[in-house]
Amino acid sequence: MKPYWRMRFTWISNFTFTLLLLIVSASPALATGSGHHHHDEEAPDHMQSMMAVKESIPEEYLIMERTPILPSEESLQKGQKLFLQNCSACHGEGGDGKGPAAASLQTPPANFLDKKHSAIYGPGEKFWIIGHGTEQTGMPAFSHLTPIDRWNLVNHILQLQQGTEREHKGNVLKK
Fold this sequence. Notes:
Layout: H1 4-8, H2 11-25, H3 45-56, H4 59-62, H5 73-86, H6 88-91, H7 115-118, H8 123-132, H9 147-174
């Protein structure tokens, strides 16, 4: 028998929760414009592109600081499978931004292992970018993916970075 919390997180309840979160987040009280993000004029072209993307993301996605789908083993496995099928050609199998198609792109794909680079976008922003793509960086939209699949992908991407942090901490402890 599945644990109680697993039964509660069915596809329907996850989808409903995501929709409710988006509706609540879009309320005028939260979208007052106070979330203006600083645009660094001195940033290199790549960083300027990333900041332009950030400025184009709707406010309700900017404030999503965690995923509504628990990063369970099932979610992470689904996210990894989706990543390998849809993202690895550019971002690399391990998320380092060095996939086989990366060299032919005008703007380098995100390196999810680089904490500073990856932290520019929060979970909601990553979710939005996956579904809508970005003209500024040339990333295509993956609008064919369901919201649940996109959240599973976000969980996997966040896990990639956490794995790098654990490896780094382990190496520091070994020295």
